[in-house]
């Protein structure tokens, strides 16, 4: 009789999201402003740093995924097949090592220890390298721990709960942030990093102990069957390992994968555009009409609400499917943006709701996409007849093609800001050649150019993104009966090697 542990595997898995989000949310909100406003990085160094970061940010995901999962791409000798619990142990070992290192790399941003351009480049690459290792293996566990939509939704549910708790760091950070004196903010960041390090160490250790027991049970069963000559598969020869070129060729023929990454590239861009420019929009669109405390509340809500909303979205996913819910969110983003454009920049309360809801629904969509990638892992496993699902590698390949959106967001955003308003965040002086150089005479409001330009950015970016995403998402076919058929085939092929998450 198996003893059910006090804390479920789903809860422990979800808690790992807490130790990531408490640091990453603060990073996204303050790293650009820290280097531009405090360290005074010059424009060339900023663009060079972002360009190098673009390359590293894209390459490290598939590189780490390939190093992790390349052994799963070829059929092994009979009797040597790696079981799912062993794969999970491998991922947990990576998390226990890279989690604390990720937290330490987070601290490197908040103290000036080198020339701004050099520090910007090194900090970004170091931080993103460890973040990639942590996020890649954490995401891959979603596909390794469960196959059914219900179990994966349950795992994602716990991630959303803990990510919402992690977003409280944004509320707290606003109280400590002071561009004139970073001491309090630095102490706050050290406290967050220490909490994250302890959390990664304890949770990964608990999970590893749990799955080590599972591995021992599976091995004992295999040895007993071998001694009795029961269930012994005929001897087969190992196939030649799949090369990276062959793997890329297989992915290029995976139509659902290609349409998904097209949509997700735009989604990653939009998410990071909102994160990078949210404080700027608050300052120039709302600061004259709302108090600082209201701005802090809006900022906090924009980070916490997506995770809370995701709890509701996941219940909708169980009823209508992930594909349909994501499609509705794209349509909602488009509709809200058009309404805001027609209403204009002078409706302050409507603008507050729109800015917050735009970020909430955009981030909420991002939280659901891991479920779609897990489904793509299933389809890749079935279509290409893998001996073991290559979840980390597929998550890495998705990142290779979509993470450039993370770098394009601040680059395109600062360019649009300069084009529309003549406002250069590096020089803090207006540029003469701007598209918006006069007040809004048509409306009679006398809107300053900077405020009007920010308004155009905040409505036209989501409209463009939504239209592109709806076009790509309409071509995605892995849903409904086709998805159910893929899951049935994977469960049948890996019978005896999968984990019952509820029983662990």
Automatic annotation (TrEMBL):
Q: Which Pfam families match?
A: MFS_2
Q: What are the transmembrane regions?
A: 12-32, 95-113, 155-177, 183-203, 257-278, 290-313, 334-356, 455-473
Top-level taxon in the UniProt lineage? Eukaryota
- Quote the SUPFAM superfamilies the UniProt record gives: MFS general substrate transporter (SSF103473)
User: Which keywords describe this protein according to UniProt?
Assistant: Membrane, Transmembrane, Transmembrane helix
What is its subcellular localisation?
A: Membrane
Q: Which CDD domains match?
A: MFS_MFSD13A
Q: Which residues form a coiled coil?
A: none
Query: Which Gene Ontology cellular component annotation is one that this UniProt entry carries?
Result: membrane
Q: How does it sit in the membrane?
A: Multi-pass membrane protein
Record's InterPro entries? MFS_trans_sf, TMEM180
Which PANTHER family does the record match to this protein? TRANSMEMBRANE PROTEIN 180 (PTHR28658)
Q: What is this protein's name?
A: Major facilitator superfamily domain containing 13A
Q: Which gene encodes it?
A: mfsd13a
